[in-house]
Amino acid sequence: MAKIIVVTSGKGGVGKTTSAAAISTGLALRGKKTVVIDFDVGLRNLDLIMGCERRVVYDLVNVIQGEAGLNQALIRDKRVENLFILPASQTRDKDALTQEGVEEILAKLREEFDYIICDSPAGIERGAQLAMYFADEAVVVTNPEVSSVRDSDRILGLLASKTRRAERSDDPIKEHLLITRYNPDRVTSGDMLTLDDIREILAIDLLGLIPESEAVLRASNQGVPVTHDASSDAGQAYTDTVARLLGEDVPLRFHQAQKKGILTRMFGGSRR
Amino acid sequence: MKLMEFLKRERKKSASVAKERLQIIVAHQRSQRGQPDYMPMLERELLEVIRRYVHVDDDAIQISLDSEDNCSVLELNVTLPKS
Question: What GO terms are given for molecular function (chain A) (predicted)?
Fold first, then answer.
């Protein structure tokens, strides 16, 4: 029986798709059979981040409307075994998704996979609500910035009321905080909310902290999820995040400003 | 002395301003969590009705819905100005 995890945030541009791609890649690298689903119908981008945009033939909407089988639409990742991508449609609008259709697809995937990662669209409307509706756990992606934190709190409200677990009064969805684009230097200078500020305000468990990193743009440029860049800070931070998702106790890294040595000061070191 | 104070005065860090603002707005959001969708509308309309008789400010009205065992209690608090 697979675990369904929604990657969500409310606000756009905080790193949902990057995180969904990185986490699903990390889970597959750990040997878990994983599928990552793009729920952003109309504005699909997960295929691009995963580097499989030229192999998309059928999509989520095709499967829901019976125009293609689930196995025809699933794209096998070329880099990791056990990883599959279910892309979103680019031509239809979000009304093409139905709750019954999504439920049916998830039920089929549940039998075959260990983890189902749902990459939510931004906003709090239909697409976002469908992405979270059947979830067992939620990764709330938050930037250390006021609008992102406020929107994350709104999403927490929806997770607690507009999901199947909430409606059936089952065990509530397990909520995890994932802070992205964290810049320890700016935190030290007092111009960025600290890790503890965000934790205190949102009051949910911290799953991971991803530092602001050049590796992320480099990864998306190349269509290779940043988890593969094992020498980068962001890649390592996502690997830690995945380990925690699997229940391991991993100490936090990259949350403190690096002391700059004299050479870095003089010549300026590039961030990994 | 005044000059020293001026020089020593530290500009309030922007992150702590952000935190204070967020704490207020999030507390407000949470107080509205789980309440029925019609509550903001109900609050506005009640305020309109009251204003037909007395002049009150926007924040003079406080409304909350509490549910007990098998009934819900709508609590309405209006602060009227001294006449």
Answer: ATP binding; ATP hydrolysis activity
